[in-house]
Amino acid sequence: MAYSGYRRPPEYASKSSHSSIIKDQAVIDFIGKCTFQTRDPEDAFDNILILNQKGGGHNPIKRVMAADGGITEVAIQESFPSTTISFLRYGVSYFEMEDLMELDKLEFIGYEDIVKLDNFNSFSFVLPTKNIRLKDCENIKDSFRQVLYEHFLNADVDDYNLMDTLVWFMFRDYSPDNKRNFVSIQCPHCERNADLFKSAMKKYAFKCPHCGQTIYLTDVLKIHNAVSDDNASAIKKPLSLLLEQLLLVHYIRISLEINPNILNETLFIRDGPLAFFGDLSNLSVFMHDLFKYLLENNNLFLVGIEKSGAFVDFAHIIDPYLENGSVMLLNSDYIYKHIYYGSSDKKGYGYNTYYGCKVIFKSFKGDSYVLTVPTTARNMNDPKEEHYKNLSIILDSLTMLKSDKYDNALLPIALVNKNVSISDVPGSVILQKLAKTIE
Ligand SMILES: [Zn+2]
What we know:
binds zinc ion, alpha+beta
């Protein structure tokens, strides 16, 4: 440590080395061959459809339901080999708008008042993450496949089972005239492609037509593809994103089956964009099919809200130039010109990942939102107002849900974030105790 007193802080050293790189002739020559965005934020309003949100009309929304998930990885053995499991909690927070309106009448809102709105239903999922497997499985991938299958089998909301929702969703049972007879999959054992026919399904599983081994219906979600020989850590985030979005589908199915009118008065919110990425991206097609069907045959109020990322950064930059009540419907050309400069895809931005279109909204209260809203159009090449069936009611509801009386938070998101968060310290202690009981 003899030199420590003379060393510059790492950030300073880093910036200093960057400035010498930028002066390097090879870098100067390379930049000379490139084009990149240097526009004024005011240019962002050329050739973009900006609607004016009128607000204040009849709003049929009577309840709000928001979904989110939280996951933490815990070492159950610190010494070599490091052994970890992960604990995921995902769920929905929900309340009646009538109760929120009662709160709004109060001059001061305390914790005890908010508790009246704090209804939460959740599921937990424990997955093997590192150097651990189920006793009757040969590896971590098969262990994960089995726990995911068993989780879906056991996850019930009243009499409604999550595995049944997966069947309803994957085989399009919601659409009497357009059901699927089979789903396609790459067998997790022999890796050959197979069509799994619903008529051949037993206990939500199939026999591979090539190798004869068991393929679970949950394998069609493909999330096990990210598990390596000894480590499932890479699936923590995608698993959380998958389960919280399928949980919304589960509640939408329950609403539809109890009484379709429930869909006419419920706003479903996801904390994040309406999209699947990586191996999960094929699910966006299934989602689009479902929500297009509901928009055309029933009703649907669903919105994804982003809190970080390139779109949020962009919205922040243009915010001072946007009037309150503005609604920007973003198309692909616009996104590639202003937000993801240097990218393009003929099918349109997010064609293989999103199941909705992007909207930037600035409310009458002056809050900006980056949203995804399901539309009847599959891509974002030319989204029109008529493709967003319930946009103005969704925006009006979001405006009502945000108040400086409760920490300037969008209340359903704040509640669900709090409910799914797993404090590292207590969470770890509980899981380590759990691990000891297993031993
Ligand atoms: Zn096989």
